[in-house]
């Protein structure tokens, strides 16, 4: 599990984002309160982390009965997103090196 954490940290996630993402991936879909308890982080910090994870494309959000529920997107989705970013960089690289 430590290898996963290091790789996700190297990919640009913060410690709390890594903890929240792995928790949701393992035990999800979950609400912020449950993620907070499982990761031993303050709920306010979890809300911030899940918003960042949503914006980065790691998780999705749905409305539950009482609160929002967060679900991890497929790890394969992450590779697809990285491929898109890599291809976009490859396109502009010739212009940057002129």
Fold and architecture overview:
Helices cover 67% and strands 12% of the residues. By secondary structure, the protein is of the alpha+beta class. Strand 2 (59-63) and strand 3 (68-72) form a beta hairpin. Helix 2 packs across helix 3 (32-39) and helix 2 crosses helix 4 (43-56). The protein is elongated, with a radius of gyration of 15 Å.
Core attributes:
98 residues, 5 helices, alpha+beta, 3-stranded antiparallel beta sheet
What can be said about this structure in brief?
The chain has 98 residues and is α+β, with helices and mostly antiparallel strands. The chain has helices spanning 2-10, 15-27, 32-39, 43-56, 75-96, and strands at residues 30-31, 59-63, 68-72. The protein is built from 5 helices and 3 strands.
Please count the helical segments.
5
Shape: elongated
**Could you give the order of the helices and strands?**
HHEHHEEH
Distance between the first and last residues' Cα: 43 Å
**Number of DSSP E strands:** 3
Pick out the low-confidence regions. Answer: none
Main structural class: alpha+beta
Strand content: 5-15%
Q: Spatial order of the strands in the main sheet?
A: 1-3-2
Oligomer state equals single chain
């Amino acid at each position: 599990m430590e290898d996963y954490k290091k790789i996700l940290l190297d990919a640009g996630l913060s410690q709390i984002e890594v903890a929240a993402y792995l928790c949701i991936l393992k035990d999800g879909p979950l609400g912020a309160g449950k993620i907070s308890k499982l990761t031993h982080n303050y709920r306010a910090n979890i809300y911030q982390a899940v918003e960042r994870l949503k914006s980065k494309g790691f998780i999705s959000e749905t409305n539950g009965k009482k609160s929002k529920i967060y679900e991890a997107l497929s790890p394969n989705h992450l590779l697809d997103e990285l491929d898109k970013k890599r291809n976009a960089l490859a396109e502009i690289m010739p212009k940057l090196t002129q």
